[in-house]
Specification:
Distance between the termini: 32 Å
Number of strands: 10
Strand order of the largest sheet: 6-7-8-3-9-10
Order of helices and strands: EEEHEEHEHHHHHEHEHEEH
Radius of gyration: 18 Å
CATH topology of the domain at 2-82 and 158-235: Rossmann fold
Strand content: 25-35%
Structural class: alpha/beta
Mean pLDDT: 87
CATH architecture of the domain at 2-82 and 158-235: 3-Layer(aba) Sandwich
Low-confidence stretches: none
CATH class of the domain at 2-82 and 158-235: Alpha Beta
Number of helices: 10
Largest sheet: 6 strands, mixed
Shape: globular
CATH superfamily of the domain at 2-82 and 158-235: P-loop containing nucleotide triphosphate hydrolases
Helix content: 25-40%
Length: about 240
């Protein structure tokens, strides 16, 4: 579905990503693991087109269709292709209503998506969002804002959903609820999920595969069962210097 090869990215003179490889197969959940400042969000910004890469390739392919060079696709086109993104911090339009936030998300889709409107599955997954649809988004609780951010990403019915630190600041109870939701999206709705996260316990609960980033390099990868304590001690207890 999505394949990254030898991705290198610079910020000014600073080399941020070093020859990063990543493969996402349809229907899987992959966790990109790393401490703060190790390149997780930069990697996703490259996928979404918010940051240019200096070398490497990003390829998108669906079913038996020919592979598509994602680097030649504008930012707005990537959402229309079927890539949903929930950024760190949610970034909802706080002055607008919940319903307005959802309709704005529809505008980034193709004409067919706009005509269909908000899919019923959004309100099936988030019944609270329906009851709050006329509420100003900035007045929502942290959990409600996170639900809105997810609902907004799902209105275009993506095939790949990217979540950046989805349980940041959440209580253990809310973290459990988020884990159940991600599991449902992945297993019941068949979404491919790319999850950026620092909490190893959460990755182990929901992901099938992992990529461990340290200072912009992919230092370990594999099935999530292989993400052992030795790797955690070696790579995730080291503090970022950048």
């Amino acid at each position: 579905m999505l394949s990254l090869r030898s991705i290198n990215q610079f910020y000014g003179q600073n080399h941020i990503l070093w020859d990063v490889d990543l493969d996402l197969s349809p229907g899987t959940c992959t966790g990109v693991v790393g401490s703060t400042g190790m390149g997780k969000t930069t990697l996703v910004n490259c996928i979404m087109g918010h940051l240019p890469i200096n070398s490497g390739s990003i390829t998108w392919q669906e079913g038996n269709l020919p592979p598509l060079d994602l680097l030649h696709q504008p930012v707005e086109r990537r959402a229309a292709l079927g890539i949903g993104y929930v950024p760190q911090g949610r970034q909802i339009f706080s002055q607008l209503s919940v319903e307005d936030n959802l309709h704005i998300a529809l505008l980034s889709g193709a004409g067919e998506a706009r005509q269909r409107g908000i899919p019923p599955m959004v309100f099936e997954l988030f019944p609270l969002i329906w009851s709050l649809r006329h509420r100003r988004s900035g007045d929502l609780s942290l959990d409600e804002q996170q639900q809105l951010a997810l609902a907004r990403a799902l209105v275009l019915q993506p095939r790949l959903l990217i979540l950046d630190e989805p349980v940041e600041g959440m209580s253990p109870w809310l973290e459990e609820e988020m884990g159940n939701l991600i599991h449902r999206l992945n297993h019941d709705f068949g979404l491919t999920i790319l999850l950026l996260e620092q909490r190893i316990s959460f990755i182990r609960k929901v992901a099938d595969y992992f990529l461990l980033l340290h200072r912009g390099r992919g230092v370990a990868r594999g099935e999530v069962a292989q993400l052992n304590e030795s790797m955690v001690d070696t790579w995730l207890t080291t503090q970022s210097t950048g």
